[in-house]
């Protein structure tokens, strides 16, 4: 039960990132790359502080940690750019649909063999996502935004796969955020041509700090802590609940009212997850 509770808490944190990013970037309170940079800085500051309080070092030059930083940067930048042009719920749907594909492929490459029930559940959940983002109806997004979120999905999927072998979740996450801070800073310099002027509002900066320090920094450290106890296919499957949570958050906090299509697709996604996570019956078992 404790693992279920911690995993659910992480999913809420993931969904909160979509709502916070959309509220800040989509509303023009801060630039997309600026949001990614502030988010990375805030996450790195909190995690490094926690590591120093426990007198732990943060080795940055380990290849696995450098790769984690690169994948986290890919996710942060693509995520922020995509939310210039899509709602919180839709963005999360595209993101975690792509994450599901990435992590199932990773599970197979790593030798994991998901049971048939999990394949069926994942298929149902992905069908729900596909129905929602299919052209037409009340959901639409420009191709460039979908591509940016697709890149974010690949980055996050690989980052999550790396976390399965984490022996030091806090240290690995802190190192990734330090690497991401440097990379996002370079991205901002390239975008602005070295200019230092920034028209971010106080609200935009506050939302980026909350996203970085709380729902990203601490949330991702907790994710790395639970990942070794989840199979890659299970980790990919449970993340498909995030779009539904984000859509509800967007409806309540951002007035992004979901239509019937989104509600029905959300129900199909959650039903697929529930089916895929049900215990597999073994031969010879019977109801008592």
UniProtKB/TrEMBL annotation:
Membrane topology: Multi-pass membrane protein
Cellular location(s): Membrane
Transmembrane annotation, as ranges: 36-54, 66-86, 92-110, 119-137, 143-162, 174-194, 200-223, 230-254, 260-278
GO cellular component: membrane
Superkingdom of the organism of origin: Bacteria
Coiled-coil residue spans: none
Domain (EamA) ranges: 145-274
Keyword terms: Membrane, Transmembrane, Transmembrane helix
Name of the protein described by the UniProt record: DMT family transporter
């Amino acid at each position: 039960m404790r693992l279920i509770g911690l995993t659910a808490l992480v999913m809420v944190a993931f969904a909160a990132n979509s709502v916070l990013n959309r509220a800040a970037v989509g509303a023009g309170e801060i630039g997309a790359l600026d949001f990614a940079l502030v988010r990375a800085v805030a996450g790195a500051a909190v995690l490094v502080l926690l590591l120093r309080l426990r007198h732990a070092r943060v080795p940055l030059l380990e290849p696995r940690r450098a790769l984690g930083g690169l994948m986290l940067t890919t996710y942060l930048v693509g995520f922020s750019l995509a939310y210039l042009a899509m709602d919180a719920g839709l963005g999360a749907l595209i993101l975690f649909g792509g994450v599901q594909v990435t992590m199932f492929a990773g599970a197979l490459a790593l030798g994991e063999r998901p049971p048939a029930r999990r394949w069926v559940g994942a298929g149902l959940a992905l069908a729900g996502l596909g129905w929602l983002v299919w052209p037409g109806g009340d959901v639409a997004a420009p191709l460039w935004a979908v591509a940016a979120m697709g890149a974010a999905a690949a980055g996050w999927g690989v980052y999550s796969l790396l976390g399965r072998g984490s022996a030091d979740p806090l240290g690995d996450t802190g190192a990734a955020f330090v690497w991401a801070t440097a990379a996002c800073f370079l991205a901002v310099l390239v975008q602005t041509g070295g200019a230092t002027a920034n028209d971010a509002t106080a609200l935009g900066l506050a939302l980026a700090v909350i996203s970085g320090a709380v729902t990203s920094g601490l949330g991702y450290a907790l994710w790395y802590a639970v990942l070794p106890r989840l199979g890659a296919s299970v980790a990919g499957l449970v993340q498909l609940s995030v779009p539904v949570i984000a859509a509800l958050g967007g409806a309540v906090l951002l007035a992004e009212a979901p239509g019937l299509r989104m509600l029905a697709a959300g129900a199909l996604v959650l039903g697929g997850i529930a089916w895929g996570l049900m215990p597999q019956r073994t031969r010879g078992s019977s109801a008592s």
